[in-house]
Amino acid sequence: MSTSGPGQTYGGSTVGSGPTHQSTVDDSREAAVASVLPEAQTQKLVTEVVEDLSVFDGIVGRAQAIIARYPQSRSALLPMLHLVQSVQGYVSHAGIQFCARELKLAEAEVSAVATFYTMYKRKPCGEHLVSVCTNTLCAALGGDDIYAKLRDHLGEPGKPLGHEETAGTPGERGSITIEHAECLAACDLGPVLQVNYEFYDNQTPESAVELVDALRRGEKPAPTRGAPLTDFKDVSLQLAGFFERESDVDGPSQATETLAGAQLAADRGWTAPAMPESVAFPELEKK
Q1: 213-230: pLDDT as tens digits
Q2: Which of 128, 172, 253, 272 has the fewest other C-beta atoms within 10 Å?
Q3: pLDDT band at 4 (very low <50, low <70, confident <90, very high)
């Protein structure tokens, strides 16, 4: 086997100066490298795993309805991932294969999207997903304290629950998955948290504990804003574009605090200047 010295590389590319060489590796060395892994693990890496997709038989029609919304079928991937999540409570390998099959995509293409967005969970989720905002303003107002309190409260003694970990058996009644979330776009109502993406505003550590305890008892306290609370699988179905009840989209979406500026302007007769019908753009500097 050839070797390289300073300024030399393998494979025909050059870095610096000097001749290049084509590296060769004999079969015995290749076998030695492969033997580092147990045979079963090596076989798993090179064998395509075909999952049982029968769990999704009941949503094939809905999958086709989603695909029909778009001129290009691959554009349906995001709602399709929500759809498979509504079945199992997370996006499993089988869910990846189902989406790939229906959209005629490679599994790697589907996996790349499913692992990019945090709304797609890659392990079984609880009946309820509790998202605590720990971004700057909510954190300063008490969001970090709320998250720490819930971690301790939902975890075992001396072992707080971690990010995207579940108290109880995933999917069963009263089970809760907790996560810390980036900005939930409710800075005027912080600190906030969400349950299955519905808002609970102006929280404290004590009110947050009362909320999760009610969820564990099977109750569904009304959100501060938005539609009545359901569960994580059901809201995944809604995000896929399917609404089973009128109440799924029924509920106040704004808060008094959010509208305070607009109300003050209305009370005082403030208006913005009217936009001119046409605007002359300044000439660009010639280069």
Answers
A1: 999 999 999 999 989 999
A2: 272
A3: very low
Q: How far apart are CA 9 and CA 1, in angstroms?
A: 14
- The CA-atom distances, in angstroms, between 255 and each of 49, 134, 234, 261 are 49, 21, 25, 12
Spatial separation of the C-alpha atoms in residues 199 and 186, rounded to whole Å: 9
**Helices 77-88 & 107-114, crossing angle to 10 degrees?**
80
How many other CB atoms sit within 10 Å of the CB of residue 227? 22
Q: How far apart are the first and last CA of the chain?
A: 57
- Is residue 127 pLDDT above 90, yes or no? yes
Place of tokens 């200047």: 273
Looking from the CA of 69 toward its CB, the CA atoms found within 13 Å total 15
Indicate the angle between helix axes 93-103 and 60-67, nearest 10 degrees. Answer: 50
